[in-house]
Structure formats: C-alpha cells, structure tokens
Amino acid sequence: MIEAVGLTKRYGQTVAVDNLSFTVQPGRVTGFLGPNGAGKSTTMRMILGLDNPTAGRVLIGGKPYKQLDRPLRTVGALLDAKWVHPNRSARAHLLWLARSNGLPARRVDEVLELVGLTKVAKRRAGGFSLGMSQRLGIAGALLGDPGVLLFDEPVNGLDPEGILWIRNFMQGLAADGRTVLVSSHLLSEMALTAEDLVVIGRGKLISQGSTTDFIERSTENTVLVRSPHLDKLRPALLDKGFTVREDGDGTLTVSGASSDQIGDIAAAGGVVLHELSPQRGSLEQAFMQLTGDAVEYRTDLGGTDGVADNFVPAGK
Amino acid sequence: MTLLAVERIKLFSTRSPWWCTLLALALPIGLASIIAANSNSDFPLTVSLTQTGYTFGLIVIMVLAALAITTEYRFGTIKSTFQAVPNRTAPLVAKAVVVTLLAGVVGEAAAFGALGISKLIKPDVALTLSSSTEWRNVAGVGLVYACGALLALGVGMLIRQTAGAVSILLVWALLAENLVTLIPKIGVKIQAWLPFHVADHFLNGGEPTPRGRDGGPAAVVYHLSPWGSLLYFAGVSLAVLIIGIVVTNKRDA
Ligand SMILES: Nc1ncnc2c1ncn2[C@@H]1O[C@H](COP(=O)(O)OP(=O)(O)OP(=O)(O)O)[C@@H](O)[C@H]1O
Ligand SMILES: [Mg+2]
Q1: Which of A207, A222, B33, B142 is most buried, most CB within 10 Å of its CB?
Q2: Is B79 in Cβ contact with A96 (below 8 Å)?
Q3: Keyword annotations for this protein (chain B) (predicted)?
Q4: Strand order in A28-33's β-sheet?
C-alpha cells in the first residue's frame, strides 16, 4: 500500500505538487491521472525518495522509501525507460541492479525471459527500440519480485501491440495481489487499465475513487430522441423536470433522463419514437474540463448530488 | 562489499573507462619512450625524467573518474542507483573506492611501464631505483593518480555534467595553477599551496635540480616535505569528495 499525506513539492516558484493526499490499495491497478505538468512524475520521484518533499510524506507499507532495506524487493518502478547507459548491455544493466539488492544473477535471466528480451540480452541498450526499452525497464522493476509497482506513463509512444501487452501485464501483476500505480494523461487509456483512479490537476488532488464512478460522473450523459411528435413529447419531458434541448432536425437531446424513462414517457403519451439513443460525452473532453481548473471543479463537486460515496474530495 | 561489485560492474560494462585506461597508460609510456630515444650525454636520462608524462595520464584518469559519475547523471542511472540503494553515501563511497583503486593500479602500471620502456630503449643507462627519492618518483605516480581520481569524482558530483566537470578539471590542473605565477610576488607563494603543484612536489621534490611544473627553474618554495605534500593533496581531494557526497545527499537526485 502507498499512502501520501499532504505531499508538497516546490521548485523555486513552481508548486509541482500541492498538499496531495491519497492511498493506493493492493490487488488492483490504480491509475494516476493528470494532464501534462500535473505533477505525476514529481510525485512518483518523491515516493521513491529521489526528490525530497517540501512538506508532507509518503509511506510504502508504513515506511518511508529511504528506510526500506534492499528496496527493490519491496518496490519496483519504471519512471523513465531511458534511464539506462546506452553502451551497457541489457543484461549488465539488470545485473548491477540485482547485485545491489542481493538478488542472484539467475533472477536477471528470469525477468529477461518474462519480458521477452532473452534474445537481445547481450545487446547494448542504446540500440533498443522504445518498446524494447520499456520492456527492459519493466524487467528492472520486477527484479526483486516487489509487492508495490510504479509505472510512469509506460505506454507512451508504444504501438497498439505494446500497449496491450503492458496493460495485460499490469493487470496480471495486480491480480497477484500487488499494489500497482500507473500514471497516464489519457483517461481513455486508464479506463481500460485501471480499476481505481487518483486524479490530479496542477499538483492538487481532484478525486480518488473507482474508475467507473469517475467516468460516470465526469461525462455528461444525454439521450438523443427522434420523433415526428416532438411537440407532444417535449412538454411531457419538461413536466418531469428533465432538461431538453431542441436540435432542430426533428431530434431532442435530453439530459438527466435514462432512455428507459424517456421510452416510458413516450409510451404513456402515445408518442411514436424513431430513435432513442443514449449519448456519451467524450472522455477526453470531460477530463480536460475537470483538470483544466482543479480548484473550480472541487467546489462543484461538493454541490453535486450524483457524487458517488467513494469519491473522496481533495483535502480529506 | 556488494556495492563495490556493483560499481565494478557499472564501471567496466561501458566502454569509456577502457579507453581512458588505455590512454592513461599509452600517454606516459609513449612520452617516456620518446624522451629515452632522444636522450644523450648532453641530455642524460634519469629515473625522474622517465616520468615526465605522468601529468597526461593524471588528466586522463581524472576525466575517467569525472565521467564515472557524470555519465550516471547524463543517462539517469544515478536515479536507478539511488532507487536501489537509498542511502546515497554508500554507493558513492563504493564508486570512489573502485575508481580510486583503478586509478592507483593504472598509475603504477603507467609509471613502471614508462621506466621499463626507457630501460629497453637505453639499456646502458643505469635506471635503477636505488634511492628513496627515485622510488617516490616512480611508485608515487599511482598514489597521485588515486588522489586525483578522488578529486575528480568530487567535482563530478558537484557539477553533474560531463562538459562542465571536465573543463573545470582541465582548466584547474593545466591552466589556472600555472597562471598564478603571473601574479607578481605572491604568485609563487600561492603556488606552493596549489594542489597539483604540491602533488608534483611530492613526486619530484628533493631532486638536485627541481624541474618545476612550468619547466623553468623552480621558483616555488614548498613548505611541505614530499610525503607531507602527498597528504596535503590527498586531504584536498578527500575534502572535495566529501563536499560532493554531502551535497548529493541533500539535493534531489
Ligand atoms: N526538477 C524540476 N525543476 C523545476 N521544475 C520542475 C522539476 N520537475 C518538475 N518541475 C515542474 O513541476 C511541474 C510538474 O511536473 P511533472 O513532471 O511532475 O508533471 P507530470 O504530471 O509528470 O507531467 P507529464 O504528463 O508531462 O509527464 C511542471 O510544471 C514542471 O515544469
Ligand atoms: Mg511525467
């Protein structure tokens, strides 16, 4: 488990991470979502003790990273696949990492096999493709068979096959009961990978909770209705308190109602429907609105009825 | 112990240390052979003369040492290092031990190599290590290389960039210390305390005609004995290294 409390990091004038508190549970993939510059990488560096927090702390299984004995056995991380000496072979790179934490050379060959790099193990890492580098990074993270794993934008720049491989891999790791934190700036990607989400914007927590709830709430759900009798249907819908927007071409866009409810109302009024289709706003659009102004969103959150219970507003 | 092995793997699994090692051997030995080949009765070959090229090897060894740390910053492996061993002092000290040992061994090999090749080229000149001064002339080179490596590591830790660290070391050792002579009167007094001059005094001090690093007659009056000079050079180097380690512990990786 990872637990951040009031984590803050300032670089001169820039506040990269601002009083961030969240927890990451074992047994599931937790997405760490935020637009570019939100502070994801900075937070991950602080989790690993590489950057010192200006304030607050972050604990892994109850301990700060720097107090872990042979930490690669507890926490594996891939923050940047390029953190390898280009003239060193993949095997040599893993070998020194393994030695530093008292892991046998046998383990190096195991993880190379696991990520499918056995054949190129002796080649210089500088000549690796992005996908291969990423696999090497993952091999490094897995060396100590750790219970906690951090990945910073692991699918960035990968082809669909590579993305699928990493996604399945991370879900497999979580299924083993490990704590997996994966950062991304794409909600659409996280929707497929992560069960839980920690969402940040401008260094602040926006929300923490399950991915489905987040998507449900952050995208506007509307229903498109096409009917030759709109003049009869519209007042009936307005009566029930739904918001109706006339689209002009014989269709209405209804928000606040499910397609079931609209169908029932139409039937009750004897209105013929030619189309009744639920619409979902784009994930990316919704996400941009949310993170575009973190503070404003947080105020909205308090006043919205539909907020799922397991969403923890920032600061709690 | 494991960290020493780790740093050994890291050092020797890349190419630049091998090249530097080769160069640090080739330059002093090459220069010694040229000097030996051109020596004659007007320009007699001596033990100390065979070691003229030690400065070149020292510079190369310092570049090797600086690279050992700055490339870790350049390629981000320093982050993996501190991730694997969060107590930063431990891997940094291990690196210092490995690099210093290598520097010492290379220094001895270069020095005795230079002496050996001179003997081969001029078999009739008596190049024997008969006095303690002559031993110091030759065997001292490894010690100076080792201290120079510590100094360069410290500079590398502080600067973190290859170009910056190497320029500072080159300008310091080759230029700045010699330019101090230009300061009237006190220039030579200051020089007596400058680390690379003092290191040279350790190797060549107490000779009948001290060479002086700038080739001219030695105008610098050293206040330390040769072995005191080595301690001084070692002390300065160690101080820079310790500052480097302390700063690295405080900074973000
Ligand atoms: N070492 C540093 N020095 C100064 N500013 C920094 C440093 N690292 C990060 N920042 C700043 O902190 C903020 C957060 O950066 P960070 O890299 O953590 O964001 P991120 O969420 O990982 O973004 P991305 O999606 O682009 O990777 C940015 O404004 C960045 O410019
Ligand atoms: Mg980032």
Answers
A1: A207
A2: no
A3: Membrane, Transmembrane, Transmembrane helix
A4: A75-78, A148-152, A179-184, A28-33, A196-201, A204-210
